[in-house]
Amino acid sequence: MRKIIVISDFDGTITAKDSLVEILNKFASPEWHKIARLINKGRLGTRIGLRKEFNLCKVTRKEFVNFLIKNIKIDTTFKNFLQFCRKNKFRFLVVSGGFGLNIKTIFKKFGIKNIPFYANAIKFNEDVAELKFPPEAKTCKTCSHCKAPYIGQFKKKGYFTIYIGDSVTDRCPARVADLVFAKHQLAEYCKAKGIKYIPYNTFGQIKKYLTSCSLQPRKRH
Question: According to the CATH classification, is domain 4-212 in 3.40.309.10?
Answer without folding.
Answer: no
